[in-house]
Amino acid sequence: MKKTRILNPVFVAVALAAAAMPARAAVETFIADYGSPSAPMVVADDGQTTFPIALNLSKFDPSLGTLTDIILTLSSTDIVGSEVLNITGSAQSYSGASVSGGVVTVTGPNSLQTSSSPLSAGPFSGTVAPYSVVHAGSTTGVAPASTTPVQPTDFGNYTGSGMVSVGLSASASPAHSSGSGTGSPSPFFGWYADSYGSVEIEYDYTAVPEPGTMCAGLAAMSVCGIELARRLRQIRSRS
After folding, report:
1. Which domain holds residue 7?
2. pLDDT in tens, 210-223
């Protein structure tokens, strides 16, 4: 019976210490943008492109705790527009410049991929200067965001100091373009595609207990030691 009385307060103190330092779930996110509404990146424009690209995001700091999940999210806003080319030495007017059925696809690592709905723009009218090309007008569409987890076997690539590189590529399906204009030869009517957006990385982890919480746990364990020493002294004095 005496042993039970000695150990009961020990168990209480240990329970208090365990309760004072629970595991705590936490989340840290970083976002990297490509392009912007005022300066989107070229996906397709007379054979030109600014893809592929690499976005740099911060790695997970292991001193914060233990990683449980890494989630990547790709978001894109895509643009399809009508283009008019004048190869003559005089200004030409045009009308009915339009484009239809353009689809922009942006692809990232794992299964990340956004794809816009078929986009159409026009008709547009205007004037194009000699030996020049103009973007007559465009339509913008927001593609559904794409999310994918990182496999635990790849966590090491995302952990430590510095940055992790996330590569993106993009493509655009052929769109139908049309229009009419003055002059001979008539202006050429084509199309172009742009995109801008971002990649977000989310680190889910079990956080290291904060200093205040650790102190509370240590204090509870100190109570355990003090109580145990007091009981032992009582037993010795009785014997």
Report:
1. 1-22+209-239
2. 555 444 444 444 54
The side-by-side arrangement of strands in the sheet containing 92-102 is 119-128, 92-102, 176-181
- List C-alpha distances in Å: 188 to 82, 172, 183: 11, 20, 11
Q: Do residues 38 and 148 both lie within one domain?
A: yes
Task: Retrieve residue 73's tokens.
Answer: 């999210």
Q: Order of strands, edge to edge, in the sheet holding 113-115?
A: 53-58, 163-172, 104-107, 113-115
The size of the chain, in residues, is 239
Secondary structure (3-state) at 211: helix
Instruction: Please classify residue 44 by burial: count the beta carbons closer than 10 Å to its beta carbon, then call 0-12 exposed, 13-18 middle and 19+ buried.
Output: buried
Same domain (yes/no): 158, 226: no
SS3 content of the chain, % helix, strand, coil (to 5): 25, 55, 25
Q: Do 84 and 169 belong together in one domain?
A: yes
Q: 68-96: per-residue pLDDT in tens?
A: 999 999 999 999 999 999 999 999 999 99
**237 pLDDT band (50/70/90 cuts)?**
low
